[in-house]
Specification:
The protein is mostly beta strands. It is 0% helix and 39% strand. It is built from no helices and four strands.
Length: 70
């Protein structure tokens, strides 16, 4: 199932690892933001669209879909 949560400008990602690096891409593959502390950033300027969040650590990594609906 897919759950829709109203977008408040914050992207939350929960992990037990602490050395995470994030890259946020548009669905067209353009890098929008990159850094280590995604929780303290305000992404309220993002337009309604689908984005890809790449999360990397020393042990693992993954790509997650972020859907922004305003």
């Amino acid at each position: 199932p897919v759950y829709t949560i109203p977008f408040d400008g914050t992207i939350r990602f929960t992990s037990s690892q602490h050395d995470l690096h994030y890259q946020l891409y548009s669905y067209k593959g353009e890098l929008i933001w990159e850094g280590d502390n995604i929780h303290s950033n305000n992404f309220s300027s993002l337009k309604s669209s689908v984005y890809l969040l790449r999360v990397q650590s020393e042990q693992a990594g993954g790509v997650y879909k972020v859907v922004v609906q305003k």
